[in-house]
Amino acid sequence: MLEGKYEFKTASRELMQIHSGKLNVKIAGNKDWILITEDMDFYIPKNSSFCLEILELVNYTCSYFED
User: Fold this and answer.
1) Residues 38, 17 contacting (CB under 8 angstroms)
2) How far apart are CA 6 and CA 12, in angstroms?
3) Domain of 47: which CATH number?
4) DSSP strands (E only) in 11-47
5) Radius of gyration of the chain measured on its C-alpha atoms
6) Is 18 within 8 Å of 36 (Cβ atoms)?
7) CA 51 to CA 10: how far, in whole Å?
8) How many angstroms separate the CA atoms of 49 and 24, rounded?
9) Hey, what's the torsion of the CAs at 23, 27, 30, 35, to 10 degrees?
10) Structural domain of residue 23, as residue ranges?
11) What digits encode the pLDDT tens for the residues 2-29?
12) How far is CA 7 from the centre of its chain?
């Protein structure tokens, strides 16, 4: 993902695994941004949204769960 600011919505629970790069994430309902770097991951609850601020080019994998 290229540097910049993004907002996403998800209907399913989501896991984002960061392979390289650096970003800040703010998940709906949280007031604080969390710094995420290489080899870290985070979950997004279903029926939610989240904002990303990409600080360095990010390589990632997204997995979606229907539970």
Assistant:
1) no
2) 18
3) 2.60.120.10
4) 13-27, 34-37, 41-44
5) 11
6) yes
7) 12
8) 14
9) -10
10) 4-65
11) 999 999 999 999 999 999 999 999 999 9
12) 9
Sequence-distant (≥ 6) Cβ neighbours of residue 13 within 8 angstroms? 43, 44, 45, 46, 64, 65, 67
Residues 6 or more apart from 22 whose CB is under 8 A from it? 35, 36, 37, 38, 54, 55, 56, 58
In the chain, the amino acid numbered 49 is S
Confidence (pLDDT) at 31:
95
Count of domains forming the chain: 1
Whole-angstrom distance, CA of residue 65 vs CA of residue 67: 6
- The separation between the first and the last C-alpha atoms of the chain, rounded to the nearest angstrom, is 27
pTM: 0.92
